[in-house]
Amino acid sequence: MPHLSASSIDTAGDCPKRLQYKFTDGLFVPRKNNVASLRGSAYHKGLELYYLERMERGFFEPTDEDLDRYHVAASEEFDLLLGEIEIMWWDDTRVIAHVARDEEGKVVPNARSVDEADHDHEEDQCELVYEQLAHMTTVYFRGTGDQPSAVWPAEYRVIGVEHEFLSPFIPGWDKKGFIDLLLVHEPTGWLVVDDHKSSGKKWDRNKHRPRKNIQGPMYVMAVKELYGDLPVEVWYSIMTPKGVFERRKSEWTNGHLQAVVDRGMETAGLLATGVPLPANPKSNLCSPKFCQYFEICPSGQKLD
Fold this sequence. Notes:
single chain, six-stranded mixed beta sheet, 22% strand
């Protein structure tokens, strides 16, 4: 059965054409990404390692040796992800890479290379990212100045890390997603969803609100299917490359849960039309840096 994620539903509202491309089978486009996205995924990996260990052994304060391991895990994840990218955006600089593919079209690991003219630039950028990842993870686990550690306290027991859900959503469609961190507040029994975010700058003041961000309400739906009608809190833990951290709560209601279902129905309806859907050149993501399909879209590169 096909599935919808929160990002797919958001894409429908931002650019229906990009959504349609995403669900087009056999469509080949070069693997593209940008430094902010890869840095965020790598930062997640360091936190994931700590909370997996904590889920097994209970609460602990990471030692300096532990922190070194989390730094290494984040850097190695960045290298792994970069190794599959053919078009990489280092801020405003584009680097075209050469990769090898197998008979199924999958990228062969450790076969990526860039031209000599781009090699030094990419190497310097990688070093910068390694430094940023080390700083971000250090601030998360140790805090800095008047900013305390962001580690969830001992009264929060870890019950899920990178938890994948795939469950019925609307007629003919499942919902799918990954919950970064799921905890239970042992004194009250409340469930807590924590979504790790990285951002180049401070989040917009409304970005965490469930009317704007449906990720939280969709996670609540998935958690309630697993644990019943227990109270659920949703938090976004946001870190910048400069080590500025904040945690924001998503104040969801049952109305927000229904809105996710309604938007899912609208999204599925768009895809069911079978006609070419319109692009949205006004979107902030309509650029070669952020849109995977910019080069083939009739409203993309052809009009630049």
